[in-house]
Amino acid sequence: MKKDFGDSINNKVYEFRVLARLSQQELADKIGVSKQTIFVMEKGKYIPTLLLAFRIATFFNVDITDIFSYDLGGAENEN
Fold it and tell me: What's the pTM value of the predicted model, to 2 decimals?
């Protein structure tokens, strides 16, 4: 069984999309994914692959860490 460390990836895809005045469908078309992918990513229910995260950051011409952030969970590393 996998251990849940409580780590999470947060994103600002919604904020960047709205500032760019794009619909979910328009952004999806531009980065090569479905509208549903954008929808669930904005809701925090989907963590994109590293490749997709870089594609999104490149599209918005920002560093990947401007859109995506990693939050370390509270679990201690056990050996």
Answer: 0.83
